[in-house]
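Problem 3 from the worked examples.
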Amino acid sequence: MTNEADPTAPAPTPGRNQLVLDELDKIASTMERRFLEGRRVLSFQEYLELFAEQPARYARDAARYVRDMFDHFGTRLVQRPWGELVRYKLFDLPWDEGLSDEGSSADTAAGQSKRYHQREFALVGQEELQGEIHRSLENFVQEGRANRLILMHGPNGSAKSTVAACILRALEHYSTLEEGALYRFHWVFPSRKTVRGAIGFGGEAKAKASEGASYAHLDDDQIDSRLVIELRDHPLFLLPIPERRALVQRLYATVGETSSPPDWLMSGKLSHKNQQVFEALLTSYKGSLAETLRHVQVERYFISRRYRTGAVTIGPALSVDAGERQITADRSLASLPTALQATTLFEAHGELVEAAGGVLEFSDLLKRSIDSFRYLQLTLETGEVPLSQQTMQTNVVMIGSANEIHLAAFRDHHEFASFRGRFELLRAPYLRSYLDEKTIYDTQILPFVNRHVAPHATRVAAQFAVLTRMRQPEAKRYPDALAPIVSSLTAAEKMDLFATGNPPERLDADAQKVLRAGIRSIYEETAAHVEFEGRTGVSPREIRTVLFDAAQSTDHACLSPLAVLGELDELCRRTSEFDWLKEKQLAGGYHDHRLFRDVVRSRLLDTIEDEMRAASGLVDEVRYGELFDRYLTHVGIWVKGEKIRNPHTGAAENPDERMMREVEGLLGVKQKVEDHRRGLISSIAAWAIDHPGQKIVNAVVFPQQMKRLRETFFSDRRKGVALVVRDLVSLLRDRRKQDSGFNALHEEERKRARSAFERLQGMGYCENCALDAASAVLRARFGELVT
């Protein structure tokens, strides 16, 4: 048997065809079951019964709905050097498949890239802004409606649009859940064939509210017309206000709901088109509400950004956000009952209408002429928008964004004061932790890089970006104990403080303790300033270009940190384009972009040097870690004045003073050893209080001491490591030339170089970037040792 359309095509396999049909039937059955279980179409009475089950859920206005959506996804605590912050999980997009790192086996570059790509639209950092948005929503709920516009302001590229996009995405998902179900209603008119006489207009029969079949579930061939209502009025608006209020209050009391119903539900009225239809039907039925409600079809709807339903973003175009048009003459409505055909019906349209019940985002609001959003003053104050034929009631949470340049100009406008009371100004600064900044590049840029990404490429970019955002602290704002320490902080030291919480090594133990305690006040120093920290600096958008350009470097086969440094040099030559390149350089290295590049370059070489030391196999990384563990154990016993059990003899002995003195010599302890030892134990106790239940990790609690020990151990083996790096460079260059002779190396040297490369591969290096890194550190740090 052949295919008539294509005689050469193979004949279909009967078994395979049946499998396809079975699968299609399963999908169809699943969708039908999901439709029915989701209560997609209801009569008015069915909806009222649903409402009575959980009145607080179905009575929500837009402000309560968005607030509840935030609460539904929950929160988690995140630790920052400046304190513990609440993060709202919706900004992690937790409903997207594959976002969790838990249980992932994808440790390869491809697996990492896949996870990152799925996280591309999640928000990194900005926990303070998240909390401010939730606080604003809570205020709206307390005040009865969203009576202000949440205006996020900050420099270009500070994630304002990402914040809004996450909220809109979360609303989309929340509306698909049972907890987030939303309903609107339309009017349906049965055909004369379906019911006897001109049903709905002049019929003598009257029904009780609990009697009479609704027309909501009629098939399409039994309906003459269906009048869609674009404003998504609440179905209970069909009930008179006094009776509606009494009913809602009784239903709240019945289920033990203690919160108050929203004013929108208790006092809201039908839109103009709905009111006209309602009055026409009520008149035709001689005042019978029950007969009128038979025409009501309640429908569940879902928020959608694509279809602009309850989630709408509008740009700064000079357009009206709401309008209306006549629809009575539309031929598609010719089948409406005569009484309605004689009524001039208008439907509202525009972004305010499409966003009803959800969120309307004004992107770059202040790029508009002030006349184009002047109406917001009255709309936010009254909750209404005047149109030519009606006054439209609004039920929407408005979120906007603006950059600092436009906001500064707006502040100087003579009408700013009148707008200020209707705007909730929330700051969205650039991130000031390079670890968070690095996460942005890892998740939003690396998935689109087609080359292998060398270790530290994004860290170099992130450190440079954050350095450009640091502001010199004003010592006069701090108490006497902290002021001199703060005044001595360099831009690089401040960057480290915000990223890791580690104070500079140059400070003594007491000064470090004072500085740690003051991190929050340093971080929040400019919180009330117009010129706040994070207002200026290089944008992540510029760094995005830097990274993509570096990935196309002809000098490097990978996205190399060395290529990134080269592109940063190019970026800093464009002094006429960026304000952050024009700022006056201050003491401590602030605004010194040349110094910033030197800092990140030096730190990169430090890191590569550490990795080469570990890869050489000549320095036992475990040894000094174990030594420090043993030292802390003995110090703890010494501070308590107790004895320690000898593991070999079982005898109780005093702590090993000789060993403690030896380690303290390696650490370069200059203060009294008694004070130093007690300071270590105090640090452990303080960390345990701040991190209850967490295991103490010495590398985290004592990074400086561990670094000093590592450097001391390394100093005696530095030349040996340099020789291994030299051999590694020779090996990788020969491989690049595809020269199998390896004449330059002896067998033992070649073996040692291969082992080093294998260890580097475990750190994420490939042959190309390992050669780049080894060559760079050989030239910069080991040249004098191998000549």
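Problem 4, a separate protein:
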Amino acid sequence: MTAPDFQSWVASRQQHVERLLASTLPAADIAPQRLHAAMRYAVMGGGKRVRPLLAYAGGEVAQAPEDRVAVAGCAVEVIHAYSLVHDDLPCMDDDVLRRGKPTVHVEYDEATALLVGDALQSLAFQLLAEHRLTRDAADQLEMVKLLATAAGSRGMAGGQAIDLQSVGKTLTVPELEFMHIHKTGALIRASVMLGACCGEPLSKEQLKALDTYAKLVGLAFQVVDDVLDTEAPTATLGKTAGKDAEQNKPTYVSALGLARSKAFAEELRQQALSAVAQFGDRALRLRQLADFIVLRKF
């Protein structure tokens, strides 16, 4: 049977994710209503759902049941949503626009936004704990550990700390990579690996290849983000354009220049494609997502 085209595949998985998120998030009329309404505001109706899509693609390599992968992908997406809510707070990036609408602390208030992030983080681990995602409970426990590590001080939160410490400084490319491997890359790597964990066991070499792909794609994602922050308008991005330059943050564009940054993203894409070549057709969606991430315009 012929595989659906990429856009159809993306649309069907995005719809699956939206349905699961909508049913997982507490209803807005359940007490405490304001918190639950704000949680839904933060998560629903926006975003490309790149991380769940990467989980689906990782799952295809391991022939994982899609219902299981969807849960893992949504757990990562909920962590991602919480990170955006906190990143936008005045004590962090102090932004007023996210996904084309006012940020959570603007629409509600700062205290509510803080609690939204706290509650979403807890919800992610509830998802991993209350659904059967693997044959072996020990393997599922490793999935919990994987996401916790990716979200914590050795992952996303640590990367954000480095980012805040780097404002006004000039970083080398290796220093930028170290920051973004944590801040952006950790959850992207977790997405691919969690999807694969839901399927048939892979060898250490195969897992290493998947992780290499995810690391490269995670870096490419950030490089392209930096390029788009320079080139794309606010209306296209759905968030405030030029914010990094305004806040004097080090970026790939400030370190390499625009042309070299674009070339670097393409180099990372080619390396990522090479990393999963051994999987043949099972890596079709991983290859297509690498293309989408690097070649996107928003």
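Solution to problem 4. The longest helix spans residues 204-231. The domain at 6-289 is CATH 1.10.600.10 (Farnesyl Diphosphate Synthase).
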